[in-house]
Amino acid sequence: MNAVYLAQDPTLADFGKDPWWLVLIKIVFAFVFGLLATLLGVWFERRVVGYMQVRPGPNQIGPFGLLQTLADGLKMAFKEDILPKAADKVVYFFAPAVSVICAVTALSVIPFGPMVSIFGHRTPLQVTDVSVAVLVVLACSSMAVYGIVLGGWASGSTYPLLGGLRSSAQMISYEVALGLSIVAVFMTAGTMSTSGIVAAQAHGSQLNVFGLEFSAPGWYAILLMPSFIIFFIATVGETNRAPFDLPEAESELVAGFMTEYSSLKFALFMLSEYVAMVTMSAFTVTLFLGGWRAPAPITTFWEGANSGWWPMLWFFGKVVLLVFVFVWLRGTLPRLRYDQFMRLGWKALLPINLVWILVLAWLRSIEDWDSRGRLTGIGVLAGVLLLAVLLWPSRKPERKLTPQEQVDKRPHGSFPVPPMDLQVPPSPRTKRVVAEREPANIGAGPDSKEV
């Protein structure tokens, strides 16, 4: 199915015609968006997690604590910058910058809105777009791991090195599942341009369930629900967010790859993590949630919801919703063991993704590809089955043994254990003291006291 462009949808022919000052404005806007998203994202995460843990969170500096993140950034800027003796100075210095640059560069191909008029120039709300824009985001995501790996290696310490190795293995494991999830989007949209993928999700579909007609949006999160679920799980793993934050596991590796970093270099690593989270959320919105288009209930009674500057509101709202899911996962799920994390990527997400792509290709060959209603029903059913497979317990919980059964299960001659009733027999000294005190109370009444 090829992308169907509407009047306000930008095409590849609309790019490359802007004057230099307008391009500069767009670049500055994307950069400022990344910085502000980081400042507000840290505050948002601390407030949401605080609410989940029944505590206030930051609420002292500024209204609602909004300036707390700015104060933390200034504090980190004036901290002492420590350079380990065993560090490779050049690589140690440039590693944080690599992560930040890659995370911010990916925002250049994200469509923030439709065609608008800026100072009399008709231009799309997007820095640039190419025929393989999705691959640009994947390349930036893959290159960002170099900052983590090089930072861990250049520190000259054990824990950062282990964190960097974990991050490289994590990127390889989940980049494959992430890429295969996007293949389904390519097959459905017929383009790898981000603006084209948004345009392909413009039209909804009609579902007939048990004789009832339903109008479903054309979002690929519904049509390609298995791809959406696997993509988002891989995105959480790709950005090193909990419960997949193995490269910086404080319970095992102190702080992982950035253990030896301080001051502004540490702040750059923090900046890259939150910019990557916002960038991947925006990428997910573009691929699966209709991009800047308003949800179906709004467009039914407001025809101008997808024109002008209003689409930026819908886009930012969807991004904030996905960032909330990131925070929700951190406040809810415990960190996985490393073997569980690898098993999920290689033995669950990868095979399921391959099977789904084969099923999708088979459906395209035998069904009317324009029948989005049938594809939507199949995608929803496959998504529900995928969630059932991922969430279904792999084995029955073992019956908890009683304390006596645990003792009987011990091999003969093992170290002795105390009695299960925890009633330690009295010592001989206690018996002697009790025996000496008993004659003094002979013949005394129940209310009498010993003198």
UniProtKB/TrEMBL annotation:
Keyword set includes Iron-sulfur: no
Domain of life where this protein originates: Bacteria
Catalysed reactions listed for this entry: a quinone + NADH + 5 H(+)(in) = a quinol + NAD(+) + 4 H(+)(out)
UniProt-listed GO biological process terms: aerobic respiration
Annotated localization: Cell membrane; Membrane
Keyword tags: Cell membrane, Membrane, NAD, Quinone, Translocase, Transmembrane, Transmembrane helix, Ubiquinone
Subunit-structure text: NDH-1 is composed of 14 different subunits. Subunits NuoA, H, J, K, L, M, N constitute the membrane sector of the complex.
Pfam families (alphabetical): NADHdh
Enzyme Commission (EC) number: 7.1.1.-
Biased composition (Basic and acidic residues): 400-411
GO cellular component, one term: plasma membrane
Protein name: NADH-quinone oxidoreductase subunit H
NCBIfam families referenced in this protein's UniProt entry, alphabetically: PRK06076.1-2, PRK06076.1-4
Transmembrane segments: 20-44, 90-112, 132-155, 176-198, 218-237, 266-289, 309-329, 341-363, 375-392
Region annotation (Disordered) ranges: 400-451
Function: NDH-1 shuttles electrons from NADH, via FMN and iron-sulfur (Fe-S) centers, to quinones in the respiratory chain. The immediate electron acceptor for the enzyme in this species is believed to be ubiquinone. Couples the redox reaction to proton translocation (for every two electrons transferred, four hydrogen ions are translocated across the cytoplasmic membrane), and thus conserves the redox energy in a proton gradient. This subunit may bind ubiquinone.
Enzyme class, first EC level, given as a word: translocase
InterPro entries: NADH_UbQ_OxRdtase_su1/FPO, NADH_UbQ_OxRdtase_su1_CS
PROSITE patterns given in the database record: COMPLEX1_ND1_1, COMPLEX1_ND1_2
Membrane topology type: Multi-pass membrane protein
Gene name, Swiss-Prot/TrEMBL: nuoH
HAMAP family in UniProt: NDH1_NuoH (MF_01350)
